[in-house]
Structures are given as structure tokens and as C-alpha cells.
Amino acid sequence: MTTDTVYQPKTKTGRIADFVDQRTGASGMVKEFGRKIFPDHWSFMFGEVALYTFVILLISGTFLTLFFDPSMAHTTYDGSYNPLKGIGMSVAYHTSLDISFDVRGGLFMRQVHHWSALLFVASVSVHMLRVFFTGAFRKPRELNWVVGSTLLVLAMAAGFTGYSLPDDLLSGNGLRIIDGIIKAIPVVGTYISAFLFGGEFPGTAIIGRLYMLHIMLVPALILLMVAVHLFMVVVHKHTQWSGPGRTEENVVGFPVGPVYAAKAGGFFFIVFGVVAAISAFFTINPIWNYGPYDPSPVSAGTQPDWYIGWADGALRLMPGQLWDFSFDWIIPFPWGDNLLAMGVLVPAVVLVALLGGMFVWPWVERWITKDDREHHLLDRPRNAPFRTAVGVAGVVFYCVLWAAASSDLIATHFHVALNDVTYWLRALFFLGPILGFIIARRIALALQRKDRDIVLHGREAGIIEMSPEGAFTERHEQVDEYKLYKLTAFESPEVLPAQADRAGHVTRSEKLRGSVSKFFFEDRVAPVTKSELEEARSHHGHHAVEGHDDKELEQ
Amino acid sequence: MGDHSHGSPQESGTVAKAQDDSLDKIQDPGLPPHRARLTDTDPRAAKRAERQVAILFAISMIGTVLFFVGYFAVGHPESIAEIRLQNMLLGSGTAFAMLGIGVGIVHWARTLMPDHEIAESRHEVRTEEGRQEAEEIVNTIVDESGISRRPLIRNSLIGALALAPLPGIVILRDLDLTKASASEIVDRLRHTMWDKGVRLTRDPSGTPIKASDVQIGSAFHVIPDGLNETEDPLNEKAKAVVLLMRLNPEDLNVSPEREDWHHDGIVAYSKICTHVGCPVALYEQHTHHLLCPCHQSTFDLTQECEVIFGPAAHALPQLPITVDADGFLVAQSDFHEPVGPGYWERP
User: Fold this and answer.
1) Is B324 within the bounds of a domain?
2) Per-residue pLDDT for A129 more than 70?
3) Among A153, A190, A203, B98, which residue's beta carbon has the most beta carbons within 10 A?
4) Contact (CB<8Å) B189/A190
5) ipTM score assigned to the predicted complex
6) B303 in the same domain as B212
7) In terms of C-beta density within 10 A (0-12 exposed, 13-18 middle, 19 or more buried), how is residue A198 classed?
8) Chain Cα centroid distance, residue B144
9) pLDDT digits over A377-429, tens only?
10) Are residues B98 and B136 in the same domain?
11) Within an 8 Å CB–CB cutoff, is residue A496 touching chain B?
């Protein structure tokens, strides 16, 4: 590196920049990022919300660690909340109460922390739905989808470990359920439970261990994954919606400096402000109402935080016994009998399968379509009916489990029998995703046909005209060329039948792929072509606009 | 349409058709013309927007002041009402402080910063040459190390690397702080504090229960006598809590081997759900059902707490009880099977 340069900075900014650049080479970064283009769309905000709520979690969480003591040692409450005075409890619960009642702003920080945790998992989830339904996970972004899925799992882990820390009645019962699930794991479950709790449940070790996971290991992993995630966003550049002027080869949007930075930076303060407002007016997790953990009592109508609900719901839906058949399977081995607690294992497998399906979907879709091209333009959900239908099926499945976590509240709220709610949800567990798939696909196809109709016959102008013969018709206006392009610029994959390999064999998996492809794409709607449009327009010259033949919409 | 990333004909000649009839596609008209905003054309509107941004920033400052009012003027709160007030002031102060800045900046960007959309071209994530070079470098590294030519080194290294992490796993053995052996870890799940002659006492006071105090239809939450004096009361309680109820003896269907486990219609069952361990805290008196509020497992008291609904897969264990000489309820023995959720070694 030479310090002997021709460049002589003239402004003060220039001199500082020159100083930094000669020591760090940061001008390359400024060149790379200063005017980097980011496409703008409201649906791209969810990932930002996730990032910002995570920052808020770090800020508020750091404050909480200054006052929280994760010890399970026994103590007697002597703080300023009268109803609990003189009650025996753990130090962890005591300090949680102190944060709420004896540290000014402590309750506010607890509320901010809990609300932004709920919002964090929510925004990660909605962000992933956006990415899924628009096909933003396709090549070259499959690995970033995996990183994002990992982040969702980590977010749930961070949430659960944090939920357990105050050592109140509710969180203690949550841990007890976890203990029950762990014990169901074949062969090693009993030992894992003993190792995790440092002996028998509840022991005196678990809160300290979860604390370490919650404030160090899990957030460090999240930070690492966020860094990888954002790095890959820079490498790939952001996806964009297709539209006039937007192609697979360009990115259209605003430069980082100043517009995007201002909008994104300002948005952080907005997210923080909204979280603060919610925390000011809506109580979350009032641990002082629950009392310290005690293995004997539990309150009715208890609910986990929303993102654990689907797991809790899966546990509730699984029948432990069907008539006389018990799902506690006794397996006879030469050394004696062992037990498979299928009533707990089956729901666990269902959850893992749903998460696993999320991780591998990009490769499943690639396998079906054999599409090896890069995609930087997003699909409107209606233009990928097969993917939209699969996504809706997944969402319905998740929501059935989620609803099941509130089966008792549904029963008491709507005055129906708890058992009936469970039976209905068990039926929906199987039928819901199928119905969701069919309905979503039909809606997507119908919307695509509507788009074709708008392109070919124009939009309804809302003007009713009376012809000299006395007939009433609505005038249709042709849409402008930009709208026209937006409605026709999409790909509609065709059925790709099973192909023979080089040796001339059609493998079994290829046959399966062919039939899945047929199932997904046989109903496809193709975008309007130029000749079709010209044909339709000349056709309009001769006939009334209404009363077109529906058959011409079928491809 | 991303044609530069098409695979070679050999490896993916069957990619989905990229709309081969691209000539018949409706033409891309290019970016729509930029529409000027009011603030672009009218200096007065721009000035107005500038003032609005400044007002929003001023609101933020007021919000910060509001925070201090909540913090200092309320001081250390002495009642729930004061805590609520302070939380509201701190929260709304922060909310205004943040929203003022955030909305102000976004308003500034939307009205006064340029809103021309700019197009930038994408670069390929990788180049063929780059990948080839990388491959060659890796090959050279592998070649120079000689790892593929000297299998003795390679295999012994694999062996060493496979063994080396094992201490890292073994060292976690003492995560169980009780120094229990493997068989003790399994065995202790079978035992609770209950034993012959241990009195049933009320939870949490620990006062013993006379059989005559237990009315038909009543239910007691029960802990073993002396629980609160043990070293780890919570650990013992997590296994030993019991529900005590009295039914009309004719309502009970008692199996022959449990003939003498109840005392005149008074029965005691483990309170720990056999599903995943929540306390089965709800007793429905007129149906004689026990319900777990966590996952709604329902047990029929008249049928020795068989599962009649929900995810639990086996009955609640029964504690055999009798009365001692003073008329207090006592256990005849420990439970005859492990309490709580199922586990591998349970049968």
C-alpha cells in the first residue's frame, strides 16, 4: 500500500474517509454498498421487522441480565409485592419479581422483551411465508432458505428457553411437559432427562443451564446465522417482482444511500416505537399472578407462547388410547420389556416432519420441475398454483395444530363439549390440508383466468351503456401496456412426463416425478400471448365486448 | 429470462421450457415514466414537508421528556396503580421518542429524497473459470499433502479424529449432579416418598387427614408426611403428590387385587399425569372424572382411573391406603408402578 497518492481530499469528510481508507481499504465497501440498489415492496418488510425485533431483544435482554439471577436456591420473598410476601420461592423467581416491582423501568423492559420475542418469531414466520409463496427460495437462494429455516428453529429455541427462566408456575409446568417428552425418547430419554435437569425433575440446575443457552449459545448462533443470511442477500442481490422494466438480469429500486438507508433505518425506530406502545398498554406474562413453581398446582386454560402452540396442539390431538388399544407400546426384548410411548412420539415425529418438509422444499420443487435456472423474479402466488396450494395446505395443517393448543378455550368460549372440539380437530388434521390444497389451487387458477380475461377483454369500467336496441352493457377499457405486461410476464411450467435415462430405462422415482408433475401442472393457465391479444382485439371490433366465449380462456 | 444459467444440454436438457415462443410474448414496455410528487414541483409543498419532519422529530424529544417524567416524578412505585402508571408513562414516552424519529425519517425519505427508481444489473454469482481455478487449487492442495497417496496416514488420522471427540461427550456424564449410576437413574423413577405407614397430609400445610374428615364428593390435594423437611422437597413433591377422594363404595369398580387399597370409598391416586407429567388438577365431582388441564387427558375414577379421553396412554397409579390407630389416613406401601409419563425402562 502506498501512502503517496495523487488523491488529495478537499472536504473534511474526504479527509476522514481518506484516513480510514488508507488503513482499512473501506472505500471498496462504500463503493459496493453506498449506492447498492434494493427493490422496494411492502412484502419485503417482514424480514426487516425480524432483524429489528432481534436488535430490540438484544438491548432489552442485556438490561434484564443486569438484574436477573438464574439461581434455583430457595429464598423467601421480601420484595414490595404484598400478596407474595413471606412465600418461599427460587432466587430466579424472586429477582424476576424484583425486576417487575423494584427496578424502575424493569417491568417495561420485561414487557418489551417478551413482546418483541413474540413479534420476532411472528415476523420470521411471515417473512418465510412471503419467501415461500413468491418462490424466492429458488435457485440460487436455496441455501439461504435453509439458513432462514434454521433461524426459525433457533428463534423458537430462544423463545422457549427464555419463557422458562422466571421459574413461575406457568414456565415450570412448561418444563415439566418438556421433561415428559424427553422421557418418551426411546433408549436414551431417561438419561437425557437426568442430564438436562441435573438429576430428577425439577432439580436445582435447569434454570442456570437454560440461562446459559438463552443469553449466550442461542443468540450467538442466531447472530451467526443472521450474518450469513444477510451476506447471502448481498451476494444474490434481492429478488424483485416482475413488472415493466424488471428482468432476471437487473435490480430496480432505490439506492442504499440515502433513500433505502433512511427508510430502513427509520423503520427500525417505528418497530421499536410500536413494541414500546404495546408494552405500555398490554400486559404480557404477569408472573406475579402465577406464583412460584410448585409441582402440584396448575391453572386451567394455560397456554404456551403462540409459537410453541402448534407443538402443544399436536400433543393434545394424539389419542393415547383408541378403544382398548393403548399407544404405550410394550416391546418385548430378550433382556426384558421396554416401552415406546407412541402417544408422545407420534406428535414429535409429525412436528419434525413438518419442519423437515420446510427445509427440503426447494429441492422437492426442483426435482418436480427439473428447473435448473436462476430465478430473481418473484412469482405472484396465483401464478404458481401448485406451490401456493402446497403452502396453504402446510399453513392449514399448522393452524389445526395451533387451534388444538386452545381446544379447552374454544370449548369454554363457544360452549361446546371439549371432546367434540378435539374430535373435529382430529378430523381436520387429516382433511384440512387436503381441502386447503384443493381450494387454494382452484382460487389461484380462477385468479389467473381473471387476469387473462382482463388482458384479453379489458377491465370493467363501471360505465353502463344502453345500445339503440335497448340492451345494457358495461363498457370494458383496455389496460395500459404496463399493466398488460405485469399480467402476462410470468412462467407457467408445463407437465414434464417421466423421461428415460441414457440406458433407456424409466426409473421408478422418475415415474413418480412424472405423475407428481402431472398432478401439479395439468391444470395450468398460460399467460396471454401477443397473437392471442391481437386476435381478441380484432374480435372486439366486430362484436360486443361482453359475451365472450369462455372456452377461449382454457388453454 | 435468465438464459445464462441454463444447464448444459447433457445434464439438464429437460429444464422447464423457458417460454420458447418468446417472440410471441407481450413486449416489456420498460420502466414506467417517473411521476413527479407535489414536493418535487411545488417548493411550498417541499417546505411544508420539511416542517412536518421537524415536528415529528420534536414529538420524539417530547416523548423522551415524558419518559423522564415517568421515571423521576413517579419515583419508586409503591402500589400496583403506580407501577401501572409508571409503565404507561415509560412506554408511551419511549413509543413517542421512537415513532417520532422513525416516522420523521421515513416521511423525509418519501417526500424529499429522490424517488427515481434506479436499475442495476445483476452479476453472476459465480464464473466458470473461477470454479475451475478453485477446483485446481483444491486438487493441488490434496495432491501436495499426499493424503490420497498415503492411505496409512489417512486411515490412522481418520481413526484418531473419530476417537478424539469422545472425551468431549463422556465428560458430560456428570451433568447429572447426583452421581447416580445408570441403573440408579432408572431405578429412582420407580420410587417415591410413600411407604408403609406414611401419613397422608394436606398440600401445602402438611397437616394429617382423618378418614372421618373426608366427606363423599370431597377431594384433597395430598403430600406425604415430612415432605417439607426433605432435602429436595420439590423433587420429592414432583413424584409424590396424590389426589384423595371419597366416593360411594358402590360406585367403585375394584379389581380383585386392589380390594383393600381403598378405605371405605376413600381412594388415592397419583396426581401426575401419565401423558407428559402435568398435575391432574381438576376433579369433576358428579361424573367422577379427573381431568388434566394441560392436554385434557381424562381419567375415570370409578374404573381405577383408566384413560377415557385424551392423549394419556395408561391409567393413573393408585396409592394403597388404610387408616392408622389414630384414625389418620396412611399409605400401605409405595405406588406399585412408576408415576408420571411413560419412559423406555418403565414396564
Assistant:
1) yes
2) yes
3) B98
4) yes
5) 0.89
6) yes
7) buried
8) 50
9) 999 999 999 999 999 999 999 999 999 999 999 999 999 999 999 999 999 99
10) no
11) yes
What are the residues whose beta carbons fall under 8 Å from the beta carbon of A384, sequence distance 6 or more?
A: A135, A444
Q: What average pLDDT score do residues A130-158 get?
A: 96
B225, B208 in Cβ contact below 8 A?
yes
Domain A51-242+250-366, CATH: 1.20.810.10
Whether residues B241 and B283 fall in one domain: yes
What's the CATH number where B227 sits?
2.102.10.10
> Is 60 exceeded by the pLDDT of residue B20?
no
Please tell me the pTM assigned to this model. 0.91
Please state, for a pLDDT cut of 90, what percent of chain A lies above it.
69
Domain count, chain B: 3
- Contact across the interface for A298 and B178, Cβ inside 8 Å: no
Assigned domain for B183 exists: no
Name residues 30-89 of chain B within 8 A of A (Cβ). Answer: 30-32, 71, 75-78, 83, 86-88
Looking at the structure, do residues B147 and B197 belong to the same domain, yes or no?
A: no
Query: B272 to chain A: which residues are within 8 Å by CB?
Result: 295
Asked if residues B95 and B104 have their Cβ atoms less than 8 Å apart, the reply is no
CA angle B192, B195, B196 (to 5 degrees): 165
Map grid coordinates 422437492 to a residue.
A364
Whether residues A276 and B313 touch (CB distance < 8 A) is answered with: no
Is residue B200 located within the same domain as residue B146?
no
- B130: which chain A residues are within 8 Å (Cβ-Cβ)? none
The answer to whether the Cβ–Cβ distance between B26 and A294 falls below 8 Å is no
Coil vs helix vs strand at B183: helix
Average pLDDT over residues A119-139: 96
Q: CB distance A370–B15 less than 8 Å?
A: yes
pLDDT of residue A4: 57
Whether residue A103 has pLDDT greater than 90: yes
- Whether residue B312 lies inside any domain: the answer is yes
Domain ranges of chain A: 1-33, 51-242+250-366, 380-492+527-555
Compute the nearest-CA separation of B267 from chain A (Å). Answer: 18
Residues 432-451 of A with CB under 8 A from B: none
Q: What are phi and psi of B123, to 5 degrees?
A: -105, 150
Task: Give the domain range for residue B137.
Answer: 131-169
Q: Are B107 and B138 part of one and the same domain? A: no
